[in-house]
Amino acid sequence: MHTLTIKKLWVKVEEKEILKDFSLELKSGEIHAIMGPNGVGKSTLSKVIMGDPVYQVIKGDILFDGKSILTMSVDERARLGIFLGMQMPLEIEGVTNADFMRSALHAKEKENFKLFEFIKKMDHTVDELKMNKDMIHRGVNVGFSGGERKKNEILQMYLLQPHMVLLDEIDSGLDVDSLRVVGTEVMNYYRKENPGMLVITHYQRLLDYIVPDFVHIMKDGHIVETGGKELVREIEAYGYTEITKKTQSIGTCVVKESITHE
Amino acid sequence: MNRIKVVNDIITEQVQTDAIEIECIPKCEFFRVSRIIIKIRKSCSLELSYNTTEETKLDVTILVDKGVHVNIFEKRTGEKTKVQYNYMLDTDARVEVTKFYMAHQIRELSQIHLNGEKAFIDYHLKTIASEKQKYDVVVYHHAKNTISNVYHHGVNVGSESFIFNVTGVIPKGNTGCILNQQSRILTNTLNVCKICPNLLIDENDVEANHAAHIGTFTAEELFYIMSRGISKKESLILLTEGFLLGGLPITESQHDVLKKEVEKVWR
């Protein structure tokens, strides 16, 4: 059982505060969805957890199993078992997927790394994700369609077997079929490995496959509303503006209650 | 596979088929530079390996006959070197050159003469510079419908001066030529790095492109790789390998040899 705790986090980038007093606790086996309009700090949250040096933590803490990870580098956090599936996975020319993943697994497993097992596992997962086998020997994400890039992120997740999975708009750029494959495979991984999951998305469609235990709405750098899956339908029906207005009219005690519920 | 091994300016090992002829003119009172002339008569592969243990000057001429296709792989290691290359391509000759340098100081001039119609050259230079290096490449499109693709990729790991001068020449009347240049330097230092792309074109009916970039690996690239648990040092090795070795027309075993050389630099 692992726990990722974000405690009253304040984050800025280039003198602009993005996250303001953000708190959340994510445990193994829980799926949290974060929704909210553009520019409220959803992607920032995932990158700050991963340790992107572009973002500066002003106050607060991020704890993994009770220990602060703020001073840890990106790779150290990844080796703890935190994985970020990115919204816009980068193209890295010249570095093949096979080399990339072999290096990543070698870094994780060190002397226990076995090349043959890695090849077998990679082959098997590529089949499961209905990916083209050629992509193993192609540059990381080079010439990949939007869907292939997202599948590639999921492939990496399967190979690295993280304890905490952060998925930043993993549904963007996916057609209906690819969304089903990605959503189903994420859930298969969840059932198998029981990780904690933080899913950032704009749309209900992803959450039809990845069913969240908690849904949070973010605004102005913090969570303003928390609920269950039904909140997603409310958002689809009324939009963020109406939902957050409702929250404001009820008063801050509702917000506080939601945060306590987390 | 034809193989030539040169130590300083002397050929020490030579494995050749009837596809190539090699002539070596040692330096003497009149010629102060050793000359190696390689005539390529039939389609083949050629591997050249140079190692210099002392300051060396060398003149290499490579003549490629009509209709011959050749893949030349060249690896250079060692000390201070001055080299001049002349590539002479006849009609329909097709040459793929891959040069991988890990030497210290280098001053190199390569003149590529596309003498016959439809002559084609793909020229890749990959180098890791720890000391002063300067490369001049001049491609002369002497005939119609000739094609040249020149790629220079260098990583500066401490060189105080690192320069690529790439010039393409197409005289009036040589229609249908295609000339591409792409030069990139990655540097982690504030030392001088220069790329001078020159297109000297006197004919309208040609296609010419050039791209030049000096910079470093981006923070986003490092973040992405490190987010999979790979340390910063290993990420830099991976990115350097990708930058220098990606997409090269070389065999797997040549790739493995070069990979080990790149790793040596960072470890």
CATH class designation of chain A: Alpha Beta
Number of helices of chain A: 9
* Overall number of domains of chain B: 2
Could you estimate the helical fraction of the residues of chain B in percent?
A: 10-25%
How much of the sequence lies in strands of chain B comes to over 45%
Question: What's the shape of chain A?
Answer: globular
Give an overview of the whole structure.
The complex is a heterodimer of chains A (about 260) and B (about 270). In chain A, about 40% of the residues lie in helices and about 25% in strands. Chain A is built from nine helices and twelve strands. Chain A has helices at about 40-50, 75-80, 95-110, 115-130, 145-160, 175-195, 205, 230-250, 250-260, and strands at about 5-15, 15-25, 30-35, 55-65, 65-70, 80-85, 90-95, 140, 165-170, 195-200, 215-220, 220-225. In chain A, the strands form three sheets. Chain A has a six-stranded mixed sheet with strand order 6-9-10-3-11-12, sandwiched between helices. A four-stranded antiparallel sheet of chain A has the order 2-1-4-5, covered by helices on one side. Chain A has a two-stranded antiparallel ribbon with strand order 7-8. In chain A, a hairpin with a 2-residue loop joins strand 11 and strand 12 (about 220-225). The two termini of chain A are about 15 Å apart. Chain B has two domains: about 55-215, no CATH class; about 215-265, no CATH class. In chain B, helix 1 packs across helix 2. The longest helix of chain B has 15 residues, at about 250-265. The model of chain B has no long low-confidence stretch (mean pLDDT about 90). Chains A and B meet through helix 2, strand 7 and helix 3 of A and helix 1 and helix 2 of B.
